[in-house]
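dude i think i finally got it to work??
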Amino acid sequence: MGYLIGVTVLWAFSFSLIGVYLAGQVDSYFAVLMRVALAALVFLPFLRPRLLKGRQRWVLMGLGAVQLGVMYLFFYQSFLLLSVPEVLLFTIFTPIYITLLDDALFGRFTPFYLITATLAVLGAAVIRYDGVDGGFWMGFLVVQGANLCFALGQVGYRRLSAELPESLPRYSVFAWFYLGALVVAVPAFALLGNAAALPSTDVQWGVLLWLGLIASGLGYFLWNLGAVRVDAGALAIMNNALIPAGLVVNLAIWNRDADLVRLGLGGGIILAALLLNEWWVRRRSASLA
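look at this
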């Protein structure tokens, strides 16, 4: 749990740093490429290829491609459509996606999740009731794409880690995770990136270095390490702990003029949807026990 708490504090600043210094100023595909490449550099010196079987390497690379590569592509685009508090609030669905993915793996379907999803959409509308437009809803959907990728990566890494011996030092193989993300980031920038919108100030380069080496490099390693050491319920809770932490940072430092009443009401409805979902999950688990 200590790893998850530490990374939550670390990541709480990432949302605002991206929204204030990079979004709309630095090409998002280049930002993704830089973060992934710098994170890979942190762990490449420790890589011991022979410690993983061929299939395990491909699985770990695939998880990195989804949880980091594709997720970042969605994530950075969302800041062009939404404010930082909105991006934060809409990440609240990740635990629901984790549950849905578990259902899919075991061949189940729970219609109750449609009710909680509808409530969550209502909360999203309250946040922007005087300005809901196509761009807002597109941003909402883009964040959900990022949430789904992040959830899939966590569930997948937990399952992969269960196959690995406990004595295996995870830092000696985690570079495969970032190399998988590079497989997504490099062609994305080559095909869709804008070379005319590279960082132009020391602050922007500094933010990218911090996000790549610390937030991504150390952050994702420690988060996934912590994810396999707690139960699924604790992991779901920590996925949402980032939201209030990130909001406090953003509202206290960069967004002091935000409409706190509307933001709180909409966020409360979204939180109620999540709590209702978790109540249902616990109730169903108790009935099956």
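Residues 134-163 form the longest helix (30 residues).
im so relieved honestly
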